[in-house]
Amino acid sequence: MKTTKIILTAVMGLSISLYSCNDDDMQNKLSEDDIVALEGFREAYTRASDANLELKGSIQQGDFDGIHFHDSVFHHYEGLFEEHHEDYSHSNDHDDHHHDADGMHMGSNAMNGHDQGDGHHDDDHQSMDDLMDDHETSTH
């Protein structure tokens, strides 16, 4: 009887701790709006990167129509990146940084053990900044 109580107490304790972990995970999940924004600005980055590669090819070929077209496409997706980024709340525990009202990076949550794919990270900004620098160096 005593063994049964010990086992039952242990099972209940384990159940409660697992439930509380799941509850924490649920609170840390991204909202649907943030998921859409996150996917949107990452997709925009990918498309801008592709357009920049195409632009470089057009420059090498001396294709002025292609240069104009791919430059326009690049800037279109650069703008979409910013639009989607503005739609992102920046208030999730999974984000490794936040912004103030002027868009300045504030603080860092880098030590909270979250993975690269689970929220908005400073690397998203750095990748786009690097791409924009590359684009400017190639064209303007």
What would you say this structure looks like, in words?
The protein has 140 residues and is an all-alpha fold. 71% of the residues lie in helices and 3% in strands. The protein contains four helices and two strands; from the N terminus they run αααββα. Helix 2 (32-61) packs antiparallel against helix 3 (64-87) and helix 2 (32-61) runs parallel beside helix 4. Residues 18-27 and 100-116 have low confidence and may be disordered. Residues 86-140 are annotated as: Disordered.
Give a short summary of the structure.
The chain is mainly α and 140 residues long. It folds into two domains: 1-29; 31-139. It has helices at 2-28, 32-61, 64-87, 122-139; strands at 98-99, 105-106.
| DSSP E strands, number | 2
- State the secondary-structure class: mainly alpha
| Count of alpha/pi helices | 4
* Low-pLDDT residue intervals, each spanning 5 or more residues: 18-27, 100-116
The gyration radius over C-alpha positions equals 23 Å
Descriptors:
140 residues; mainly alpha; 2 domains; two-stranded antiparallel ribbon; 4 helices
